[in-house]
Structures are given as C-alpha cells and as structure tokens.
Amino acid sequence: MRIRYRVPFKRKILIDDHWDIPMQGGKLRVIEKNHHAEALEIIFEHQPIEYAPSVRKHTEGEIVATITGRDHRMTSVKHQLDNAITFLECFHDVELMTDEMEVSYEGETPEEDAKIVIKGSSFGRSSQTLPLSFDMITRALMAAEHHDGPRFEATLVGSARKALARQEFINSFRYSFLLIESLFGDGQFKKASLQIALKASKEFRSIVEFAIKDVIPTKDDRSSDTTTMLAAKPTADEVIDHLIEKRGFYFHGNVKRKDAWRPDEQGAAESLAHLAAAIATRISMKAADPIFELDLEKRHYEHAMQAGAKIVFDIKFKFREPAEDFDRQNNININIAGTKVTARTSFAVAQHFLKVFQEHQPASHLLEARCIVQGSDQKVFDLTFYSPEERAK
Q1: Which of 94, 169, 210, 317 is most buried by its number of CB atoms within 10 A?
Q2: 10 Å Cβ neighbour count for 122?
Q3: Strand (E) positions, 160-225?
C-alpha cells in the first residue's frame, strides 16, 4: 500500500528549485501551484495495509460501525516536520500546518486497493463564522467621528485572541497580561507592589469578578493549577495573585528551572490563557463604551428609516385576567431597523414582546402570541402557553 501525506504551508512560499529527497524510508517533494510552494508531500510505498483505517461493524446497540486502525507512520512524520520547521522559524516567518494534514491510502495492486475501505482522511481546525450585527458597524463608524479608537486595547486583545486561535497559549497570556499591567499596574513591576496596585483598583476588581462569574473549564485541561483554582470559586484577590504568579513564571522563568516552561508544550497554559483573555476582552469592551452612547442608537435608527430599512412586526396575542373565565385579545406593533427577518431579529422581537407584556400585565396569563410581518403573510413566530386547566389534562 502507498501512503501520501500532504502538509500545507500557511502562506505562499517561493522555492526557486527543488527535487525529491529521502525521508524516513519514503520520499518528500514540494507541491507547487502557480510557481509557489503550497505544500510538502511525503510518500511511502509498500506499507502494511493495516495502517489504513478500517470499519468495524457492530451487531448490537445504536452505533452502526466504528472506524478503527492506526497509521503508525503519521506520528513520526508529524514529529519530524514539526522539529524541522522550528529550525526554519529561527530565520523566517514560516509555518507548516501539520495539524491540517491530508492523508491518502492507495492500493499498489487492484487486489490491495479493494481491501482499503477508507481511502483518505484530513485534519483541520474549524474556523467559525463571526456573527456581527450591522448596528455595531454603524455605531463604530459614528463613534469614530468624535473619538479616537481604543487602538492600544484593541491591538493587545487582538494579539491575545490570534495567539489563542493558533493555540499559542503562553503568548496569548502574555499579551493579555501586558494590557492588564499597562492600564491597572500603576507603573509597578515588582510582585508585591503590583499585587497592591491591581487589588486597589475597584474597576479592575469588578472586571475580574465579571470574568470569572460564569467561567467554563477548558475541555482538554482538567489538571492545571488555573483550572484547579477556578473550580474552587476564587475571589478577585486570589485570581489577581494567580495572574501575577504566572506572569513571573512565563515572563521571567528560565530554562535552568526544574519546572521551566517549554514553548513546544502549550497545554499547561490553556486555561490560564482563556482566563486572561476573558479579562482582557472585558477591558477592551469597556474601552469601546462610546459606541453605546444613546445618541448613536437614535442616529442608527434614523438612518435606517431614511434608507427605507424598516420592518413592522404585528403581534396578535390572547390572554386571561386572574378573576375572569374568558379570554381577551389584543395586538401590538414593534418597529425595528432592518430589511429582512433574521433569526436574531425574530428572537429579539419575541423577547421585547414578552418583556412589554410582563410589565403591563404582570398578573395576567398569556395564552398565545402570533407574529407576522405587517402587510404580508410572512410568519415570524407562534407562542403557546397552556392554561392551568389544559396543563392538568
């Protein structure tokens, strides 16, 4: 069986001349596209067919089949490539994406090919789409008319997020702590003085308390000291002490320590990086307060009306008063800025309606509410709330 590993470069690479070279008993070659190197391909021939994934069928239970088998070549290939690229990184900004490797398994004879059930696999990091509401863009543009953007905060928190996405947890923590120390450290750098400065800031303490209120443990990190601390429901002071302790370790630690950190072992800092990034994000959000000025909300709505971006939601609802045995009906119109009904706007309109009903009819029992776009038959939502009699059936 022939195995091919295709490992992409993150950016375009220009290699003016190249040829096949031996690697671990196979051969490595450069894959070009439009005269640029886009990947490395490593080919191994005469490999055991057991290296290819196979499917084991089940006779009982809900699971129909399980993919089994282990490609023992893959680990050693990835290890050597990761080590090799670190040498090049000392000279160039180059990244080989070994975590996004594509593998194909090919029979070298028709009989062998027929035995290979799964011909290939690929690995990659998911890149989620960012949901961004249009009013955030308009508010930001209007705020920039009279305010300088929070470039300092945005640059550092952006670097922290990018490092998180690359799973560079140590660097992410450093960027986040630089922001914390710069804004709330009062110019102190020694451990005790910095602890006093951060704990003395009511604003920073409230930011920390907000950040740890609903913290979710990192899925793959259950044993780090940060995870242990968060599980014990720490105070703001305890979190501050922990951050400063880790700042000393990751900013000033050296390779001679028995417990020295290693740049190729990032997992131990994952929970720490997420905690620090949550605090840094809260700091940056506060720096962006000008976009939430009430005047900008009014201008956003006025601009939308001038552009004809208006939707009227017509809600007909049925309710019953506590002392009555008959149903009442009413309706309400809700105007929003927009040109189309989205899941976000539908949910927001439903939330707003329920809030208005609760404020004006706190003791009444809401039975149903049906919403359409005014002037059309376009349905938005139907809500049904059963009466005590109906629930008892």
Answers
A1: 169
A2: 10
A3: none
Contacts of 133 (CB under 8 A, 6+ apart): 344
pLDDT at 72 over 50: yes
- pLDDT score of 66: 47
| Per-residue pLDDT band at 73 (split at 50, 70, 90) | confident
349: exposed, middle or buried (C-beta count within 10 Å: 0-12, 13-18, 19+)?
Answer: buried
Choose the most confident range, by mean pLDDT, from 49-53, 94-98, 242-246.
242-246
**DSSP 3-state percent helix, strand, coil across the chain (nearest 5):** 45, 20, 35
Distance CA(83)–CA(71), nearest Å, equals 20
What does the alpha-carbon distance between residue 167 and residue 172 come to, in Å, rounded to a whole number?
8
Residue entry with tokens 């630089």: 178
- Evaluated on CA atoms 253, 259, 264, 265, the torsion sign reads negative
pTM for the whole structure: 0.67
Q: How far is CA 167 from CA 15, 17, 254, in A?
A: 28, 33, 22
Residue 274: φ, ψ to 5°: -65, -40
Question: What band does 275 get if pLDDT is binned at 50, 70 and 90?
Answer: very high
Cβ-based neighbours of 125, under 8 Å, separated by 6 or more: 99, 100, 165
Q: What's the mean pLDDT in 312-338?
A: 93
Answer whether 246's CB lies under 8 Å from 173's CB: yes
